[in-house]
């Protein structure tokens, strides 16, 4: 791949650090890109997050300013998308329970409001699990299975298929949902995004018809104005913002440690790797981090043989499509982890010369859930690349894991979720394919859900791939 071709999207797709600073001999930001990764790196005690492509590709109905106006435009949307916007949500209480509340309505102890306050308090109590005869493990597993095996759709509220596609893939992410259930006692209205996301999970687990994620969207829109209305948005960007929000809300670190710049001199790679992870988790540590975040090592080798390292946390891998021909995921990963030459503006610590360094990128700690974001949209030309991409159901990334930092054969992943985008940028649609525990694939297309005979692993619509670590 020529440098000219590789840098044709300079300052847009760049995944390399600023070369005029010693910054990348210490911490690096070489893997982040404006098109994709939600990675972290540190310089002068400041945290930087990458941006991503926004406002992309849903049904082009942004002229409508409210849900009511959308509803008047129903004729231009698929019928099923509006079937269940105002779903009737029957109460789980029986007539006998309502009669009891009515009879005791004059008593403050059994008033209508106090009944629900007591019920909610019991649900959020830290001893919720121990109050039953079942073990906490069996309760968690039962609730987990009811959520991740749900075949309930999500109503399209008006250009919200980008949101529904992301939500379905996350709700069916076993590792993440299991951790979320185990921490449900710490989820409350003080963590609104996590609270309404988990409420949505529970509602889908018990519902017999599609669910309208109205409350979740309302709360998310209050925090992020980009997603407040009913305009077009990108499912990859929405997913990153959502997971970053939940990572922040569910951060278990109450007193953050001060930032300590990583020094690598005289230390092995594995020592540096563990030290960076320990320092990072002294500031940010959550179940979202445990499930989705991986750790990247950047290895810089001087011609004199001296090696320097930097590390960063990443949420997903943005894989650039620089061809219109058919290509495989393995080829895209090869491009992403390709070695390159970098000219340092600072002197080598050993030889004292400003020399070209060889740069390698590898996983030092691969994530439990690997998200591959296929960059089909060129942010410069605003055109979509609909080339055919092949991807395996069993993905092996061991060759992209550093041999010293890695722990054996931990790079095998199983495909369980696909976020698709069909159509064009100006008029397109998102939907998901998800593999449940019965090994069957299902299509989740807003409120419409169907069982599939299988999934085609060569696709022109695949947009985001979700892989879970093979155990």
Descriptive tags:
four-stranded antiparallel sheet; eight-stranded mixed sheet; 2 domains; 14 helices; Cathepsin B, Chain A; 471 residues; alpha+beta
List the helices and strands and how they pair.
Blueprint: H1 3-6, H2 23-26, E1 40-43, E2 46-49, H3 67-72, H4 95-103, H5 112-124, H6 136-148, H7 161-171, H8 174-182, H9 192-206, H10 214-223, H11 235-249, H12 269-281, H13 287-292, E3 294-301, E4 307-314, E5 317-320, E6 327-328, H14 329-336, E7 340-343, E8 356-365, E9 369-375, E10 377-378, E11 383-384, E12 389-390, E13 394-396, E14 412-423, E15 428-435, E16 441-445, E17 448-451, E18 458-459, E19 462-469
Parallel strand pairs: 5-9, 6-12
Antiparallel strand pairs: 1-2, 3-4, 3-8, 7-8, 9-19, 10-11, 12-18, 13-14, 14-15, 14-19, 15-16, 16-17
Structure write-up:
- With 471 residues, this protein is an alpha+beta fold.
- It has 14 helices and 19 strands.
- The strands form 5 sheets. Strands 5, 9, 13, 14, 15, 16, 17 and 19 form an 8-stranded mixed sheet that branches. A 4-stranded antiparallel sheet has the order 4-3-8-7. The chain has a 3-stranded mixed sheet with strand order 6-12-18.
- Helix 6 packs across helix 8 and helix 7 crosses helix 11.
- The chain is globular, with a radius of gyration of 24 Å.
**CATH architecture annotation of the largest domain:** Alpha-Beta Complex
Looking at the structure, the CATH topology of the largest domain is Cathepsin B, Chain A
Continuous helix count: 14
Strand content: 15-25%
């Amino acid at each position: 791949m020529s440098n000219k071709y590789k840098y044709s999207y300079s300052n847009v797709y760049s995944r390399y650090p600023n070369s005029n600073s010693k910054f990348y001999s210490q911490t690096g930001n070489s893997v982040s890109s404006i098109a994709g990764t939600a990675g972290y790196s540190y310089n002068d005690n400041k945290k930087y997050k990458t941006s991503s492509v926004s406002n992309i590709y849903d049904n082009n109905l942004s002229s409508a300013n409210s849900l009511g106006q959308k509803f008047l435009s129903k004729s231009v949307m698929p019928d099923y998308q509006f079937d269940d916007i105002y779903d009737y949500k029957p109460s789980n209480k029986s007539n006998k329970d309502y009669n009891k509340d009515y009879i005791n309505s004059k008593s403050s102890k059994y008033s209508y409001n106090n009944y629900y306050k007591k019920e909610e308090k019991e649900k959020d109590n830290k001893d919720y699990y121990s109050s039953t005869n079942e073990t906490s493990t069996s309760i968690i597993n039962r609730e987990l299975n009811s959520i991740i095996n749900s075949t309930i759709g999500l109503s399209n509220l008006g250009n919200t298929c980008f949101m529904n596609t992301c939500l379905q893939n996350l709700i069916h992410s076993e590792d993440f949902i299991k951790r979320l259930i185990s921490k449900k006692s710490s989820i409350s209205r003080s963590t609104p995004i996590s609270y309404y996301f988990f409420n949505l999970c529970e509602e889908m687990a018990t519902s017999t018809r599609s669910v309208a994620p109205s409350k979740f969207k309302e709360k998310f829109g209050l925090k992020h104005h980009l997603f407040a209305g009913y305009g077009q948005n990108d499912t990859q960007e929405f997913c990153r913002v959502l997971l970053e929000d939940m990572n922040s809300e569910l951060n278990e670190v109450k007193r953050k440690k001060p930032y300590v710049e990583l020094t690598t001199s005289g230390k092995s790679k594995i020592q540096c790797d563990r030290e960076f992870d320990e320092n990072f988790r002294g500031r940010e540590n959550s179940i979202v981090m445990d499930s989705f975040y991986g750790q990247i090592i950047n290895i810089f080798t001087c011609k004199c043989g001296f090696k320097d390292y930097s590390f960063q946390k990443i949420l997903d891998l943005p894989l650039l499509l620089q061809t219109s021909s058919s290509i495989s995921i393995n080829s895209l990963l090869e491009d992403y982890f390709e070695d390159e030459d970098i000219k340092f503006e600072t002197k080598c610590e050993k030889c004292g010369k400003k020399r070209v360094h060889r740069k390698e990128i590898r996983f030092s700690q691969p994530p439990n859930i690997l998200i591959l974001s296929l960059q089909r949209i060129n942010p410069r030309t605003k055109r979509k690349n609909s080339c055919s991409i092949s991807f395996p159901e069993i993905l092996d990334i061991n060759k992209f894991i550093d041999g010293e930092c890695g722990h054996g054969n931990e790079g095998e992943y199983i495909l369980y979720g696909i976020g698709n985008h069909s159509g064009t940028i100006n008029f397109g649609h998102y939907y998901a394919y998800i593999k449940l525990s019965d090994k069957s694939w299902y299509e989740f297309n807003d409120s419409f859900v169907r069982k599939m005979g299988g999934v085609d692993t060569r696709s022109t619509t695949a947009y985001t791939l979700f892989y879970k670590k093979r155990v």
